[in-house]
Specification:
6 helices, two-stranded antiparallel sheet, Phosphorylase Kinase, domain 1, twelve-stranded antiparallel sheet, transmembrane helix, alpha+beta
Length: about 325
Amino acid sequence: MTDHELATKLKELAETAAPPPRIDLDRARRIGGRRRRVRTTALVLGCAAVVAAGGVTAVSVFRPVPPLAAAPVAGAPTAAPPAPTDNPIVAKAAFGWLPEQIAGVEYAVGAHGDTALAIGRGEPAPMIWLSVYDQDPPVPRDLGGQPSRIPVRIGGHDGYWLTTDPGDPVNHGSAYLQWRAADGRWARLNAHYLLAPDLQEVLTRVAEGVTLGNRAVPLPLRITSLPGTFHLSDGYLMRRPDQDGVPWRLVLQYSVNGGLATINVSPPGGPTDGLGVPECEARKGLRVCVAFDQPKVVGITAKELLGRITLIGTDETKWTTHVTG
């Protein structure tokens, strides 16, 4: 099983059945081996595909957030401030408190849904998904049928646990917690492989720290004069050192006149996603690669695109939220 195959399966887990926390590791690895091919060369968050109508997801760094305001009287969602246009990865909501098992946050945007994941270490890694919907989201396909709804209050707002076992709100570890957020939209937490004797209390605390709003995710590069024919298809900032051998890696894939252009950035040693022969350079302790699956339709060469990319370095405190322009 390759890294790409494992990453692709992990993206599916948000909409497929997941074992409870006390699982058989060999079975989990076998599940991870099933493949799903997509046209965009299996570009994935490596963790996250909550692909549902109207749903978007995001996560913040680990720091306290202000308390939620009272929900508006009107039933329609309050319009969020416009998303930044000079950053390809924009978070739509933020975590506040997260448990110690969580080691990092991953983000994805594009054709497979705007998604994010708070993730730990190991295999299988503990995961907490945060999704945002314009209205009460549909029942996840892996639950099926008519699962029970166990009422709960989150930050002063109505919500419920969604479970196939009325006696176990956290659904034996594959937990779904949904509630109406302060701006009238709905949020969902979905947890897998999270080891906690008080999982219900842990996820309730996580949910109470969630806030909604557009936030540009800091990234380790700037791209100048990106051609107008480049349209973002998929992008992800992934944190899987146990799988990739690097602490993080960024992949941006653009559709260009029917072809695909893929930019990979990571510390040296990380895998390279995308189709085509990559053109790579090493700068500021990082490696950047550009690949075109149909070079003749792009309009510039991979070398030319590399020349328009400035790498910022490995210090994440210096990464920028203003990526293109």
